[in-house]
Amino acid sequence: xxxxxxxxxxxxxxxxxxxxxxxxxxxxxxxxxxxxxxxxxxxxxxxxxxxxxxxxxxxxxxxxxxxxxxxxxxxxxxxxxxxxxxxxxxxxxxxxxxxxxxxxxxxxxxxxxxxxxxxxxxxxxxxxxxxxxxxxxxxxxxxxxxxxxxxxxxxxxxxxxxxxxxxxxxxxxxxxxxxxxxxxxxxxxxxxxxxxxxxxxxxxxxxxxxxxxxxxxxxxxxxxxxxxxxxxxxxxxxxxxxxxxxxxxxxxxxxxxxxxxxxxxxxxxxxxxxxxxxxxxxxxxxxxxxxxxxxxxxxxxxxxxxxxxxxxxxxxxxxxxxxxxxxx
Length: 328
Ligand code: FNR
What we know:
Elements: H1 2-14, E1 27-29, E2 46-48, E3 51-53, E4 57-59, H2 67-83, E5 87-91, H3 93-97, H4 103-110, E6 117-122, H5 127-137, E7 141-145, H6 148-153, H7 164-174, E8 179-182, H8 190-198, E9 203-205, H9 214-220, H10 237-244, E10 252-256, H11 262-270, E11 275-278, H12 280-289, H13 291-311, H14 317-320, E12 325-327
Helix pairs in contact: 1-9, 2-4, 2-13, 11-13, 12-13
C-alpha cells in the first residue's frame, strides 16, 4: 500500500496534462466591452455544503499512507492554511485498515487546526467506517470517491461494486457532516447524476477527464502494457458540467479535473460549479517549487479570477452563471 501511494505521486508528477489542449478551450465566455465594475468591488466568495468560503478554490484529494506522502501532506496543509482554502485528504482507506498510517493523514489537521478539511474514502466503506474517517481528521465534510475505472485496471482493485449505492445512501442519511461524492478524474455521465440524486446526494464534484489521468497512472505501475487501451476513457470536466445542468437546482456542483489556469476556473463557475478543485497542478507546484511559490500561485489565481470577472462585467460568483457562453 505504502509503495502504491508513492507510485501514484511519482507517476502523477510525470503527467504533462496541464499544458495540453483541453475541452475548456472550446468554452468561450462572452466579455463585455464596456464594463462598469471596479476590481476592488468584485467578490469571489462562495459556499457549498453549508460552508462559507472566501475563495472558490480548494485543494482536492490526493495522498497519505506513507512516510513520503506524509511530508507532502504537511506541505499541502501549510498551503491550505496560508491561503484559507479547504483541503481534502487522500483516501483514508490505508489508515482505516492500519492505524499506524494515520499520522500521514492527521498531519493535515495538526498543521491546520482551524482550516476546512474534507476526509476522503471510497464507496466500498459503510457508515461506521465513514464516521471513523471523519473523526480521524475532525473533518468538516466527507468526500466519497467513485473510481470504478481505476479499480478495474488495478490487479488488486475491487471487483465487487454491489454495495456502493447502499453505502452512499446510508452515509448521506446518517452522517452529521456534509457528504460530497466525487469522481477521480473520469467525469460523470447524466446517468450518474440521476443515480446520485436518487440516493439523496446533495453535493457532487464531477472531477472530469482532462488533467490527472488515473487510468494511465495505474497502467504505468505495470511492466507490460496491461490495460493501456483504457487510457482515453472518461468524460471531460466540461461535458460533465453540461450533464450537471439539469441537476443544478437540487444539487450543488463542484468542478475539478484538468484545471490549468484562472480562466478554466471562471469557465467552470460560469457553467454552474460552486467551487473548483485542483490536485495535480498543486502537487506539481508544491513538490517542484515549494510551499511559498504554491501560496503565491493560488493568490495570483485569485487576483486574476477577479480581473476576468471585471471583463465579464460580473460582480459575484452567482451572477457568473447568467453570462452568455459559446461552445465551439
Ligand atoms: C488523486 N485523486 C484522488 N481522489 C480521491 O478522491 N482520493 C484519492 O485518494 C486520490 N488520490 C490521488 C492521488 C494523486 C497523486 C492525484 C494527483 C490525485 C484524484 C483527485 O482528487 C482529482 O479528482 C483528479 O486528480 C483530477 O484533478 P486534477 O489532478 O486534474 O486537478
